[in-house]
């Protein structure tokens, strides 16, 4: 019997420096600010402990978590206890808003201090998206067919 893998791809737009480091396999982490937007985008919540039914997190819940004084610790514990889990299995890095891109498998999404040499801030925790080296370049359709976020790291 063939195992079916449910691939969910997170699309991230990168600036030239960070894209090329990712593409060469020099940078194996990508960082995003801990905001309600990224909390909703990156994670889903366990809705039922018995069935393990996960659902998208509400914006209100995400806002409450991010505003909590112990946000990082609370989120780290929730990830470790499987109360929330990553929504994606792979990440597609895009070189700006061009057709140039590649896909990597996500190893984990955690919270902590990243590597400042790779663009992480030095004064606060961030979401750390750890991934394997590139699988292969991926041709995509027209830019309007893709969902992107603002350029970051």
Structure explained in plain terms:
The structure is a single chain. This protein is α+β, with helices and mostly antiparallel strands and 153 residues long. 22% of the residues lie in helices and 32% in strands. It has four helices and nine strands; from the N terminus they run E-H-E-H-E-E-H-H-E-E-E-E-E. Strands 1, 2, 6, 7, 8 and 9 form a six-stranded mixed β-sheet that branches. The longest helix is centred in the middle third of the chain and has 10 residues, at 71-80. The protein is globular and about 40 Å long. Residues 141-151 have low confidence and may be disordered.
Mean pLDDT: 83
Task: Show unreliable segments.
Answer: 141-151
Q: Which of globular, elongated, flat, extended, rod-shaped describes the shape?
A: globular
Percent helix: 10-25%
Number of continuous helical runs: 4
Structural category is: alpha+beta
Strand content: 25-35%
What radius of gyration results from the CA coordinates?
Answer: 16 Å
Topology:
Elements: E1 9-14, H1 16-23, E2 29-32, H2 36-42, E3 43-48, E4 53-56, H3 59-67, H4 71-80, E5 84-86, E6 90-95, E7 101-112, E8 126-131, E9 136-137
Parallel strand pairs: 1-6
Antiparallel strand pairs: 2-8, 3-4, 3-5, 6-7, 7-8, 7-9
Helix pairs in contact: 2-3
Quickly list its features.
single chain; 153 residues; alpha+beta; six-stranded mixed β-sheet; three-stranded antiparallel β-sheet; 4 helices; 9 strands; globular
